[in-house]
Amino acid sequence: MNKAFFFLFFPLFLIISCTKDDQISNFPAKVSFDVSGRMLEGKRINCIDFDTKGNIFIASDKEIYYKNGSDQKTYSIDYSILDIAIAPDETLWIGTNGGGLGHLTSKGITWYNSNNSGLPRDYVRNVEVAPNGNIWFSSCAFRLGGLGVYDGEKFEFYTPENSPLNQNIIDDIEIDKEGKVYISTSGTVGKTNIYSISKKSWDCLGDEGGMFYWVFSFTIGPAGIIYLVEDFSLSSSSLTSNTLFQFNDNEWKKIDATDKLVYSFFTRIKADKRNYCWIADFGDNSPILHVFDGESWLSSPEGIFPEDYITVIEVDSENNIWVGTSQNGVFILNQ
């Protein structure tokens, strides 16, 4: 656990601090594409997470970088990191390819896998922590496994055989501030569903037979608005194109977009503290960001990112946008 001074440029205004719900409406309405900070240049960024206590964790391949104020650490593990989530007790949960589910504390890492905890497989693509401390994660493959939850004492798994799930594969998990869990399923085109789970009560948001062609990821804003991109990249038809949808007032609505919105395969998408939707795309020569502010679209200028691929978009408690890339580390856009 060596010190790693990986923050190349980190202005004071980017330091994470607690943001109360009643402050959300006070964020400036203007969207800024100015890059105000860089870090981990030359690194591939797998995932990023923050909390309101100043903790920042960033995963790159098999390494985890941590910062809180002047405290900085680097942790190396034996498995590729797929997702991370900070718990209310400030410990970190880790989804990996090959190691199962990891729990990083001051005492080290505890591993939960198919041998000691009954995970369907040791591939955990998504992990999220609810406000009550429950750990929600995916451990699945086509017709195998599904959604896992760990309450600190026992593991429970939801599959199509014992739950409303229509497919085994869970492509994304989101949890809102009230603790309601949202998941998307995949595995068969045309059969993707979004489910919400609250106190073990399930609700399918749309057609139970299959609502979307394919959804790689979705996002939930502070107001409870869900955004997702219906992905037609697997389709052989040239008549279909990726489409942004919004779920609000208990219905899905297609959001009109300009012709320049291409949406690459495995589109990264994130709602910020203003309920604006940020979407990663690729322009003529470099990645770009599109932002839907609820009424209109804005797009970043060409060239603010080097030729690369955006791997993750996250938003901290002060509404700064953190953009992770596959080769050039993290770009921070102060809002």
What's the total helix number?
0
> How many beta-strand segments?
28
Regions with little confidence, pLDDT below 50 for 5+ residues: 1-5, 8-23
Q: What strand order characterises the main sheet? A: 1-28-27-26
Q: What is the percentage of strand-forming residues?
A: 35-45%
Major pleated sheet: 4 strands, antiparallel
Q: What percent of the residues sit in helical stretches (DSSP H or I)? A: under 10%
Q: What is the structural class?
A: mainly beta
Describe the structure.
By secondary structure, this protein is mainly β. The protein has no helices and 28 strands. It has strands spanning 37-39, 47-50, 56-60, 63-68, 71-76, 80-86, 92-97, 101-105, 108-112, 127-129, 135-141, 144-150, 155-158, 169-175, 181-186, 194-198, 201-204, 218-220, 226-230, 243-248, 251-255, 269-271, 277-282, 287-292, 297-299, 310-315, 321-325, 330-333. The strands form seven sheets. It has a four-stranded antiparallel β-sheet with strand order 1-28-27-26, with no helix packed on it. Strands 2-3-4-5 form a four-stranded antiparallel β-sheet, with no helix packed on it. Strands 6-7-8-9 form a four-stranded antiparallel β-sheet, with no helix packed on it. A hairpin with a 4-residue loop joins β24 (287-292) and β25. The protein is globular, with a radius of gyration of 19 Å. The two termini are 33 Å apart. 41% of the residues are buried. Residues 1-5 and 8-23 have low confidence and may be disordered.
